[in-house]
């Protein structure tokens, strides 16, 4: 006679039910707790960094999404594990394909991890002028996967975040204006410096300058000229126009004072 | 006597049937649900990005294909697992070969993952003029594995998508036209600038320009010339012809006003 | 007395036989089905791409070979698994050596995967003139592991397919003929352009041109010359001879019209 | 009758309780012990390196955080393991995704590991002028993930710590001032050296110098000049202004002594 | 009393014997079969490629060696597995060291895999003049691990086969002889071409040429000369001496016809 | 009645105790033995290499530390394993995080492994002048993780040991002093060589030289000069000052003998 | 009553003893056999390559060491495995740390593997002049981990063997002496060649030459000179002095025959 072992079956079912029950309870507790933890942690860490409301919300939404999907995945796998459906070999079987995918997709994950920190640490803001990954331009959009830069000539650069290994942000604080001027070896250095100092004095009242430009001395002996250097600090973004204006005024002042910006020189020893 | 344990056999079969039954039911529920989820998710994410109908369909088809193949693979492995055919060692055994394949095929996966996001994020469109992966040209076709660019000289570049680590899209928005002109150190900067400004004025009505060109000042002290710069914004694709026309007009205006674009200079100190 | 448990033995044998039976049946079904699937899939995907009959056959043969070897491998391992010969540790043991092999052989796999797609996607054909992986030449043979290019100087380049990360195919569609000509700063741009235009007109009837060459304007201010550019579209492969002929005619036309192609200029300021 | 095996159940529970009990006790002992160990170890290792109080606290906090999270993670997993919830397959299942994440996140871990050692070993301090990872500037902030450098032109560089493979710290100890001066092949080397030595003597009392500059001899035969070299040691940060002043004085002394800093020379053999 | 279960022991031994027996039989069948398969496969694949007898033997010996060692390894591990000596943990334990070894030895494996295909595909032969991996020279020896090239200056280059990512074989088929000649902008292009054509005609009977050299036209406008190009096809290895002879004859023909190969030109605008 | 199986429990405990006992005994034997082995091995290997006492102690301390930590780790894990606390899944679970950490920390391990061998093999000593990893300077400190170089200009370079892939040690043995001198094509080579030989003779008694400098002949035909070369061997560190002195004496001797160190020459063919 | 199952215990012990016994016997057979095999294999493979006695001994010692350590490691692990001490989890637990170590130590393994083959294949000998890994010099010592090169200037380069991806050995066989001489475009090529041939003839009896130098023709048209080339084969190491002597004699012969080695030429078109 076929003697089905009811006792054992019931026992097994009981154990199963108990396990699933514990599982459910754990998840029902973990889910809201985790979400709250994320929210509060993020708020604390962003509040100290003055991250804008909108950005904080984006990050929160992202993190809670990731958390939810992970939880669902874990629940499903554990559920199957308890029921005893042999999910182990399946997963192992998926490993070979999975490995290829993992290799292929690591770039994607790397993009998102880096993107997350760029957003959180506020390394760049929309509107900043930055140099990164061999591109430079004004930031148009910062995404989790790509950052968009508008180059000077109008080109739009899409940079995957993983390529952003270092960021040079040109929009953080004052900038230096720097102009190198070559004078002839025949001219008096002292005279040239005094003329340049008078030019620099004209820019003292210039609102573009945080710190008026000044002559710092003989920077180098060029092959045909003695190089003098002017340095000043300007408001961010004004350094280029300031440099252009200094250059124009220097040329004019030199013309007035008969100081020559020399052409390349060569001594010709003539033989026949 | 050979005493076949019928009871046990039936019990085992019962368990097997139950397991396979659950498996089937789960799959019959998951399959249509997953497909629907994909469709709706994709539609939502693409609708906000104004992806064209055709492109959305391509993506949807791709994702559902991937989903179906994965489901079939999972079903088969789980089925074998339940029956008890020792698929574990097989899969482990496949691991060594699999690893080599995984390494070899990661490029393929990487291509498809990147291709998917290029399609989804609309980084490039057919007809855009782009620079990427060391190639530049007009996009002829965007595939999941390769993107085809038509170079300026007519060459067709096949670029695997994984090589596209950054995209410079020259067809997004207005472009800058930029012309640098060198004038002699002997010429008056003010005079030259006024001539250049009158040339720029001629282009004010030019429909190619979004923002008429203007002289921005002394860009640099060259070894033989003072470099002045003209900058303007043009409609996309018109920057090159605009630059060519500015150059021609500048040369003519300089000729009329006796302003010289200087040759390289050298001071020769003659000895014998 | 030694009491051999015949019942159990028979039972075990029965289970074994059943398992092997199922295994056999599954394989006998899967083998022909798989082969058919490959054939039909390949035919469908190649028919839409107009792949030549011979090439399609090569691909089909390759895929069926790979499929057969995989099936045999799977069958053998599963057979051993059922018999209970401990193949698990063996395979694990092979892992260390296998890993080294996998690393070493990944290049081979990568070659074949890339080769497969180059064949399937028809990126290059025998006879195409291409640039890839730092080599350029005419394709002599496309293999699954290597592609052979015949360089211009007669050298035969063997390029492993995995090195082919991007292909520039110079034999797809019309090519541009481009000639840059420098004229003196003293010469009239308008005059030079009208002479060049008359030269271009001579090529209107030339069968090598799809689109007759034309002068597009002032391309650049060189240090000693104003650079004018001529552009035209030619039939593939004719761009070089077309360019050579344009160059010869331009030189002759300039000679007739006393327009000079200037030597490098230098202004010498003489001092003693 | 369904005969629930109470004995066995109680036995099992007993074993469970015992195991969890041991686990709890072990953790209650390990947790405070570990924290104390970290504190004392860190204090010992930092005290010998004169790390500032604030920095030591940061490191301690970080290490205790890491330790706590690890402990919690271990406890949870072991707890599940004891209860018998099948966490094994789950974890294996997470492996594929995990692998991708591991690849993607390795940069992050690498950042933190390197950051930890940069902090601990005091390779850079806030305010140091350093060159690293292709950037150079003054250190504004050293974080666990990124280090911020303020470039000379005002740009703020964000450098991920993993990119810091080598650090050139320009703010550790005295610096060398080095000036190369070319004299004519016609001038007497001895005369020039004596003039330079008298210039160097003027700087003997200069507080910027740790070791007064001196002429070390004929450094090279240039194509048009004999190169003499002056070397001295200055207080950190004063090397540039010292060099500028030496250059100015050398030029003036040479002018007084009729020693020429020669222009590039060329012998012209004139033919007709 | 100690009651040794003889029955069970005998049963176990019986199972063991059976397993080992099957194992032995399988191996005794597989070994000779495998060797034969390798021989016949290799012969077939090499016969179609006209691989020399000696080379085929080398490959066969290598493959049979690899096959034998693998078989022995498999046999030993399976034998231990059957006896029940716990070889699993051992192998796992070897994993860590093994991984390091695998990483370290992958170069070796990669060398051999590449070497095998270089031999099989006959990419290079002893005596060929090739460029590969940054070296170029005449092949002296092709080994499984390294290939030896004799450089032009006599240096012997040992190149690990894995470095051979692309091979440029200069000894396969005819080569092109190419000579570029610059003529003065003042000289008539037609005249120069007719002179060059007469020079080319002299080489028509030259046995070194497969295809007599010819003038193909105006290759470029140089800064001081119009560049004409001569191209011909020579027997392999004769291209350099052919080029040298063409150059000598061109110079002589130009001298006779008063055509100048111009020096670099410069227009000097003299100012005072 | 709940019937606790005391017998079984005691049996289990007995087995446990036995296992732990064996474990303890093994460790108590292995620990001191291992330490002694390390000490004696290190002493033997360092004594033959004349490693300084202090350095040998550092290495010994490091190795014994590593050994102790490893032993403790092994003991703890085996202890848990015996008790039966499920440490397996925990460790597997740690794998994903561990993998990321392993990737991130491999640099650290690589630093220490390389550092160990640099110390052991005495590739560099404190005070040596070396070039490595793109930096060069005098070694200030050799650590297990980083090596510090003091650059010539005073900069302190921190080089992670893993970056030290090759070391050029300039402080091992005598150095060569090498001076190249160009003489005019018009001057007699024999005359110039005899003058140079007399200069070299002056340095015969110079204590800086191990091997007096000598003229080795015509090194090259420069575009404007015939290059002669002088070579000698000096005590380590004296090569630069020796070269400077040779240069000075050569110039003076040439002046006395009317041998010219020529300027760059150019033949000017004048046209109008 | 506690009823210890003596029978079972004894049985277990019996099985254990048997297993350990087999293990011991296997190892006692394998150990000497393995060592003998290594010795004989190495001797055979080195005898055919004429490896020096000392080198063969070094290799043998190394291989036997590696073999012994491996055997001990295997024995210990298998012993623990048989006793049933849970070594599995321990090893798995070591995996994470092990992975980091494996990554970090792979360089070391790679060094030794490469070093082994450099020694075995005799790619370099002590005293050879080689170029490898960006360094070049005379080999001073070949170790398993590093190879030491003495650079020409006296620097000692330590090159890790893994960096040695290709070796250019300049001390294997005869070397080519090569001298390029430029003659004026005005001079007769035939005359110059005949003079050069007479110079070459002088070196026919020179013992340094294996093959007397000869003029091979017009190598190139330089911008200012026609380049002629002399090539000869010399005994190894004598190529440089041979080249120097040829250069000296060519200059003298040209002076006697009024053939000019021309300076760079330029045609100056003078304008005012």
From TrEMBL, chains A, B, C, D, E, F, G:
Localisation: Cell membrane
Matching Gene3D superfamilies: 1.10.287.1260, 2.30.30.60, 3.30.70.100
Record domain Mechanosensitive ion channel MscS: where: 108-172
Pfam families, per the entry: MS_channel_1st, MS_channel_2nd, MS_channel_3rd
Mechanosensitive ion channel transmembrane helices 2/3 domain ranges (all copies): 65-106
Keyword Transmembrane: yes
Keywords: Cell membrane, Membrane, Transmembrane, Transmembrane helix
Domain Mechanosensitive ion channel MscS C-terminal: 179-261
Keyword Transmembrane assigned: yes
Matching InterPro entries: LSM_dom_sf, MS_channel_1st, MS_channel_C, MscS_beta-dom_sf, MscS_channel_2nd, MscS_channel_C_sf, MscS_channel_TM-2, YbiO_bact
Transmembrane segment boundaries: 13-34, 62-85, 91-120
Record membrane topology: Multi-pass membrane protein
UniProt record similarity statement: Belongs to the MscS (TC 1.A.23) family.
Protein known as: Mechanosensitive ion channel family protein
Originating organism: Gracilibacillus marinus
């Amino acid at each position: 006679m076929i003697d089905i072992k009811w006792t054992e079956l019931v026992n097994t079912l009981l154990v199963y039910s108990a396990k699933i029950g514990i599982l459910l309870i754990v998840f029902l507790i973990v889910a809201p707790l985790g979400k709250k933890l994320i929210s509060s942690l993020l708020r604390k860490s962003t509040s100290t960094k003055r991250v804008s409301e909108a950005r904080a919300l984006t990050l929160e939404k992202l993190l809670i999404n990731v958390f939810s999907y992970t939880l669902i995945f874990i629940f499903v796998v554990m559920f199957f594990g308890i029921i005893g459906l042999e999910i182990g070999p399946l997963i192992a079987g998926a490993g070979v394909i999975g490995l290829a995918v993992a290799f292929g997709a690591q770039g994607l994950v790397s993009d998102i991890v880096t993107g997350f920190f760029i957003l959180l640490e506020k390394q760049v803001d929309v509107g900043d002028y930055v140099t990164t990954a061999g591109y430079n331009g004004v930031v148009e959009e910062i995404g989790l996967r790509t950052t968009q830069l508008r180059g000077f000539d109008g080109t739009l650069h899409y940079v995957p975040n993983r390529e952003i290994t270092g960021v040079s942000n040109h929009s953080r604080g004052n900038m230096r204006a720097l102009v190198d001027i070559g004078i002839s070896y025949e001219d008096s250095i002292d005279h040239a410096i005094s003329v340049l100092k008078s030019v620099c004095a004209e820019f003292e009242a210039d609102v573009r300058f945080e710190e008026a430009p000044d002559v710092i001395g003989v920077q180098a002996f060029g092959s045909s000229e003695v190089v003098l250097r002017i340095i000043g600090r300007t408001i961010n973004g004004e350094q280029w126009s300031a440099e252009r204006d200094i250059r124009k005024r220097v040329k004019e002042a030199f013309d007035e004072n008969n100081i020559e910006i020399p052409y390349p020189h060569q001594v010709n020893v003539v033989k026949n």
